[in-house]
Fold each of these.
Amino acid sequence: MSTMPSSVPQPVLSVEHIAVHFGGLIAITDMSFVVNQGEIVSLIGPNGAGKTTAFNVITGFLRPTKGEVRYKNTSLSNLKPHEVTSLGLARTFQRTSVFQSVTVFENVMIGLHRRSRSTLLDTLLALPREGRAEAELRNLAHELLEIVGIARRADELAGSLSYGDQRLLGVALALATDPSMLLLDEPVSGMNATETARFMELLNKLHGRGMSILLVEHDVPMVMGVSDRIVVLNYGRIIAEGPPAAIRGNPEVIRAYLGEGASRHAAH
Ligand SMILES: Nc1ncnc2c1ncn2[C@@H]1O[C@H](COP(=O)(O)OP(=O)(O)OP(=O)(O)O)[C@@H](O)[C@H]1O
């Protein structure tokens, strides 16, 4: 059977046999999965499953005990976080990392001034690559705020934004580094239902523009709504992987979550 080249999945991020030990505690055991070009993949799991540890390894904040992470065939093993960013991988933080005392617009301008090169962002915004002046950077900043949906707040102090809007600004700052892939650490934690719905729209928009996205997230309904594939961790091991429909009905996944619910219940 022949397949069109465009339909062949192209792995961009490969997590290969990662193990993380903290002293005697094994936080992650032999974790392998890929994120293909343009895919939204989510890593979920009950409390303590190892999600944050996995995220820290993938973003270069933590060296794994074994295994390696490759981005477009470059090993991230010995790279510093800013070197990971310059490969085109951008992350957001659970706690917002915006500059509270300057405006929303200035936050993005600072982000744009920091970046050293341009690739996908130009494609994303359909802008010319060379000879960009300050005025063009200002246009870019506005466009980024439009994309994340907070352009109307451009002149407000970042610290005065609602929690949900600060998280959206965090995504604009990540986009300002000109990434080809976004790594999002529990992006909707602490958001209300309306903010979560807006965030899901943003993810769909970025997905539509070809961004590859890895989400580490607690909110299972949200993940079900936006992901192409879901990887489920429990006690540091991958127990299931597949599209949302397959994950929803997977007995081992149900058991992992119900088990957690039951033990939580018992604790109260
Ligand atoms: N720096 C550390 N030192 C020792 N143990 C750690 C460290 N970081 C995490 N752990 C342990 O590793 C395991 C996985 O933790 P991790 O925070 O990655 O899970 P998680 O899935 O993100 O949990 P949660 O959903 O509660 O945030 C837990 O048993 C945790 O106690």
Note: The two ends are 56 Å apart (CA to CA).
Amino acid sequence: MASIKKLLIDSLDDLDKAQLKRFRCYLRDDYKFPASGLEEADVLDTVDKMVEREKQEGAVKITLDILKKMNQNQLAEELEKKLKVKKAAVDSKAVDVDYSEFSNTLKKLLKQDYEKILDGNSHQNTYLTDIYTDLYIVKNHTGGVVNEHEVRQMESNRTATEDTSVMCKDIFKVQRDTGRQNRKVLTLGIAGVGKTVSVSKFILDWAEGKENQEIIFIFPLAFRELNLISVNRSLMGLINKKFFGSENQLSSLPKEEGKVMFIFDGLDECRFSLSFKNSEGFTDVTKETSVDVIITNLIEKNLIPSALIWITSRPAAAHLIPPEHIDQVTEIRGFNDDQKEKYFTRNSKPDMSERIISHIKRSRSLHIMCHIPVFCWICLSVLQPLMMTQENLQSIPTTLTGMYIYFLLSQMKQMKAKKQSDNLPQSFEDVVLKLGKLAFTQLQKGNLIFYKEDLEECELYVDDGIVFSGLCTQMFQAEKPVSGRKVFSFVHLSVQEFLAALYVLFICKNRKTNPFPLTLGDKLKRTFKKNSLVDLHKTGIKNALKSKNGHLDLLLRFLMGLSLESNQNELKDLLPSLNITAEDLRQTCEYIKQKIKKSVSSEKSINLFHCLNELNDDSLITEIQEYLNSEDLSGQDLSSGQWSALVFVLLMSEETQEMFEMQKYRRSDEAVIRLLPVIRNTRRAL
Ligand SMILES: Nc1ncnc2c1ncn2[C@@H]1O[C@H](COP(=O)(O)OP(=O)(O)OP(=O)(O)O)[C@@H](O)[C@H]1O
């Protein structure tokens, strides 16, 4: 345990040069320390001088007093907390509690709970160590628009050059270079990128005695579970009930620094408010209170000041924790290119993995999406059976929509077999359309997690076993009930977006209605005109462009992809005879091009290019490729639409990912601004 002197040094180390100078001035003026020798004193000398003259207790008092005078209240508070912990540790030594038996019981329980996972939510448990592939995790999330759509974030991934990568098992270890240890870490990552898997691996390694053995207790408390606790509990009561089977087993926790760890997975799923401003400074671990008070006070270090805290979250919810309560932010970026290949190699036979990898590399969209582990799992479950049967080679999907259609079809096969054996009343098509309705209505509201009532609004009844008897279990999941209330979600946000698009098309065809919110103008037009597919496309595009965080972007891409005849053929049971004509598609493509030319933001126009890609229209791209092949790349005479096309082509090029020769284009300020998404996405900009 750090000495008092070390605690003082650590505090003053956080002051910059000017602040340290002010600190010394206070010492001189208010505490009459002799000026000689003080002027040039560094942190060590300053602390030495205080302890020499005032002894440890006096030095602490003076330090706290001056820090407060300097308005360094946060530093003063932290120092006070550390001193409290130290005092408690000294006190507890007198009692000398032996926690080893409880620690071993907890390890046994967590080993059982975490050694197997539902891989990508297949209904079979898989050993975590069998599938686990290292992920690319970086220190210091670099900021940016955090509520941007998750797939778009992936595609405009930020530059890798300034990141320091970190292994998940090392996140809480003392850092060799600085000697510091992170106490409170927030790990961000988009849906399906591996946050829960990372946390699980950390816990399993600890429970198996492999890593981080200086920690005595790790208590994983996922927000999904915490949401369901509606009665007041004390922290000790909560821990005892969840981990030791009754309310009164473990009576205290170790007070020494870093011996207890709390892991709060899935902040984005938190359904109660976390109020840090009005926090009451709740310090009693045996007093009952609401769950939000326990969590905020743990994070604020009022409850167990010595505890390590690890919170994971999708980026959009990161703001729920004020930055001053976090020592280190890390970001899980998913698999890098090597890790993607390792994933496929680990999870399929050697000749199969080679074929899968080369297939994915051929399609830029698929290759990009494979940064997300859960998408790798979807690819694996689609491509493996397809590639096993030689004659299917022609029909192996190369577009995003194609991949999801095959995913759906593979589910259909399994479900039909299951339906026969279980004699279930509803058809696959019915269930998928109901899930589609749920997907669409909840996506419009920005919801990714649902409750029983939400399902019932779409005529999906949990109790009649249709959804959970093996039907849909790979697309839709229910969480373990903790106190009777189940939570549901799609296995990945992209699956929700795909089913939503399917539903939109179905509604347009069958009920001749347009499920998107319509503007007044659209409504008026509709009274005079019959509802056409082109109108549906147009309102879809308008709504997606209106969305601030791009929550309809992927739905739009799927909507376009599903409108192609070739894709329709695969889905004739679900979407019979949509009667889409070449003229319809031409009109939609023209409309998209107009929108691109009107210079929407670069992210939006990139998505519109993806839509054109799904519709097999590459005319703008060909135009720009000719320009790229020409000698003069000064970039002066490009129209707005051409600029967008250029950015799209460059983003989709593997070469640009590695290196981008900006100097070829840098003749105008406009070029620099326009090409920003490319610069952000490349590893090396020249
Ligand atoms: N490191 C990994 N190695 C192998 N597979 C992984 C890894 N990480 C994730 N996966 C796969 O991706 C799936 C989703 O991962 P996980 O549940 O950890 O995502 P998440 O980031 O917590 O997503 P969400 O925000 O939706 O909760 C896993 O079930 C697994 O199939």
Note: Confidence is low (pLDDT under 50) at residues 141-150, 152-161.
